[in-house]
Amino acid sequence: MKLKAIQLRKGNIIIFNNDLYVLTDVTHITPGKGQAVVQTKMKHIQTGQNAEKRYRPDETVEKAELETRKMEYIYDDGDNLVFMDQETFEQIPIHKDLLGDAILYMLPNTVVDVDFHDGKPIGVELPLSVDLKVVETEPNMKTATVTSSYKPAILETGLKVQIPPFVEEGEIVRIDTRDGKYLERVKK
Predict the structure, then answer these.
(1) Does residue 146 surpass a pLDDT of 60?
(2) Contact 162, 151 (CB under 8 A)
(3) Where are the domains of the chain?
(4) CA separation (Å) from 127 to 51, 84, 106?
(5) Which of 33-47, 87-101, 133-147, 154-168 comes out lowest in average pLDDT?
(6) How do residues 70-93 score in pLDDT, each as one tens digit?
(7) Rounded to whole angstroms, how far apart are CA atoms 169 and 147?
């Protein structure tokens, strides 16, 4: 599928130098003089190697053809996480390196969209937010109210976040998967 460079967005997966890259930053630059350009920063899907490329706005870019399947994360198998297709019940191991930080937002039974290219899994699309239990944080301060001060916490997946001082160990918090920030305390 061809796209004009002006249509590129962060998160798109494109074919660059015959390999798959995910766009990590897209900036439209319109100088006072001269031609506008689209500056892209990207990361190689498998190696994690970074690259940059400038395109003219009307230049065409090859967007990768992806198949997305709903899959449930079942268990950790050492170097891989095993996912089960929600329709066929087929189980597929995906290497942890390929998943990156997404691992920190997934508990067993989490349903995610897994992207496939040429029949091979290349990554997961997380829900916008996840609910995780606080397993380690500083004790609650009796005088704590909703303020702009935060304290560090470790969640059940190992994710480290900043939470408000009134949240205690054992409570469930909602986390934004796009930036890893605390959204709210989840009532039981």
Answers:
(1) no
(2) yes
(3) 2-63, 67-125, 129-186
(4) 27, 17, 10
(5) 133-147
(6) 999 999 999 999 999 999 999 999
(7) 19
Q: Which two tokens stand for residue 82?
A: 């095993």
- As a CATH number, domain 67-125 is 2.40.50.140
Q: Which residue has the higher pLDDT, 25 or 72?
A: 72
CB 165 within 8 A of CB 153: no
Report for 93-97, 107-111, 116-120: range of highest mean pLDDT? 107-111
pTM for this model (two decimals) = 0.73
Kindly indicate whether the domain formed by 2-63 is annotated with CATH number 2.60.15.10: no
Spell out the residues 6+ positions from residue 127 whose beta carbon is closer than 8 angstroms to its own. Answer: 112, 177
Q: How many residues does the chain have?
A: 188
Architecture of domain 129-186: Beta Barrel (2.40)
User: Could you tell me the two tokens for 46?
Assistant: 């498998």
* 101 φ, ψ (degrees, to nearest 5): -70, -10
Structure tokens at 120: 């091979």
CB atoms inside a 10 Å sphere around CB 157? 16
Contact yes or no for 38/27 (Cβ under 8 A): yes
- Type of residue numbered 90: E
